[in-house]
Amino acid sequence: MAKLAADNLTRMRPHTGLNWSQWIRRFAIAISILCGLPLVMVVFAAFSANTETLDHLASTVLTGYVITTLELATLVAIGAFLIGVTLAWLVTACSFPGRRFFQLALVLPLAFPAYILAYAYTHVFDHPGIVQSSLRKIFDLGPKEYWFPEIRSLEGAALMLTLVLYPYVYLLARAAFLQQGLHGFETARVLGKRPLAAFLSVTLPMARPAIAGGVLLAVMETLADFGTVSFFGVQTFATGIYTSWFSMGDRNAAAQLAVGLLCFALFLVLLERLTRSQDSSYNKIGISSSPPPIQLTGKAALAAWILCSIPVIFGFVGPAVTLLIMAINSFQDFLRPRYLEFMANSIILAATASLITVAAATIFGICRRADPSHRLSALTATARLGYAVPGGVIAVGLLIPFAAIDNAFDDWMRSTFNISTGLILTGSITLLVLAYMIRFLAAAMNAFDAGEVTISKNIDAAASTLGHTQISILRRVHLPLLAPSLLTAMLIVFVDVLKELPATLILRPFNWDTLAVQAHRLAADERLYEAAVPSLVILCIGLLPVYLLCRQIGKSP
Q1: What values do phi and psi take at 382, rounded to 5?
Q2: Does the structure show a pLDDT above 50 at 423?
Q3: Where are the domains of the chain?
Q4: 3-state DSSP call for residue 278?
Q5: Which DSSP string corresponds to 107-149?
Q6: Model-level pTM greater than 0.90?
Q7: Which pLDDT value is given to residue 11?
C-alpha cells in the first residue's frame, strides 16, 4: 500500500509535486548545513589561529578546566543515576501511600533551571544566609568558630544540577521498568535471590540502555551549563569560553576551548547512540501481563514516602517557596516598564525561535516520510547534533563567520557608497534565533516523530489515490493530526529558549536583555532578592511543559 502511494505521488501532477518536493529537500539541506556550520567553524578557527592565549591557559588553568569539568560531570552522573533509578523503581514496582502523587511530582524539578536553584539555595545556605545566620545567633558563634558546608563549591554545583536533572533518568528508567514488568524480578525472588540482589542482577541490566541514555542526557546538560558554575565560581570549560571571549577579548582562545568542550559532547553523543542501538536487544515484557506491584506497609511504606519526598521538597517546593518569599521582600514591581521590556524580549525571542524550530522539524519530518534514504538520515543526524552541543559553543561557532560577513559587507559599503551598515546580522536577534534553532531542533524533531509514527502510511496511500498531492495531504491530513505534537514541541522549545543563558549572553544585541540575562546579572552582583523576581517568572513559565509531561505520565498505568 505504501509503495502504491509513492507511485501515485510520482505519477499524479508530476510538475507541481516534484517542484514542491525539491524545495522541501533543499530547505532540509540548508537547515542541516546551518546546524553543522558552528561545529565546522569552531574547529576551523581553533586550528587556524595562533595558540599564544591557549598556551598561557594550558600553563595556568586549562588542566583545572579539564579536571573540574570531569569531576562535575561524574558527580552529576552518579547523583542522577542513584536518585532517578531508585525512585523510578519505587513508584513502578511498589505500592505505598502517595505513590500516584509522587509519579507526577518527581518530574517537577525539571521546571527549574539549575542556575535559579543555585540562587535560591545560596540565599538560604551561604554565609550571610538564613541558616548560618541563625546558627551563629542561637549558639553565639563567630564567623570562624564553626564549620558549615560551602554551597558555592564544586559539590554545591553538582548538587544543584543533580536536583534538576535526575528527572531525565527517572522518566527513562520508569518507562523501562514498566515495559519489562515484574516477571524477571519475581522469578529471581522465587529462585532465592534477596530483593536487592534480584534488582541488581535481573531488573537493572534489562533497563540499562534506557538508564544510560538518561544519565548521558544529564551529563550533556551539565557540560552545557554556564549559569550555575559561573555563579558558584567553579571553573569549567563553559566558564573558560566566556572568560576568554569577554574578559580576554580573544575569540581564538574561546574557539580552542570550545573544541575541547565539543569533544566531550560528541563523545557523549556516540555513547548515547550506542546505548540506543542496544535497547532493542532486550526482551521486554508487556506491563499487561506483569504481576501486581509489591505492597509496602509500616516502616517500609514510610521509608518509601520519605525517599520520594526528599527530591520533591529540595528540588522544587523549597526553592519555589524561597524564591516567592525573596520576590515579595524585594518590593519590586515586576509590571513596571523595565520588567515588562525584559518579558517582552524573552517572549519575542522564545516565540520566534519556537515557530522557526518547529517549522524546521516539520520540514525534516516530511522529507523523512517521503524519502527515508541514507542521505536524509545523515542530514537528520547532523541536524540533531545541536542538542548535545553547549550553547556557548554554538554561539562562538556562529559569531566567527557571521561577524566576518558583517564586517566585510560594511567595509564594501564604506568604500563603495561611503555608508556604514553596522552589524546587520550579529547586531540583531537573527543570529540568536538561529542559535536557538540549532540548539533545540532535536527536541522539536523528537516531539514531531512521536506524533508522526501514529499516522499510518496507508492514509497517505488512500489520499493519493483520491488525487491529492503531497502538499494537499500535508495540509489536510498530516498537520491536523500532528497539531497536538507540534504544539507540544513549540511549548518545549519556548521554555528551553526562555531558560537558555550562555548563548543569550554571547549573542544578544546591545541593550537587549531577557529574563534569564537579568536574573544572571542581578545574582552576579549579589542582589539575590531582586534576582528572585525574573527567576520566579521563568519558573512559572517552565511549569507549562512539565504540566503536559505530567498529564502524559498520568495516563500511563
Answers
A1: -65, -40
A2: yes
A3: 1-34+330-524
A4: helix
A5: TGGGGS-HHHHHHHHHHHHSTTSHHHHHHHHHHT--TTSS---
A6: no
A7: 43
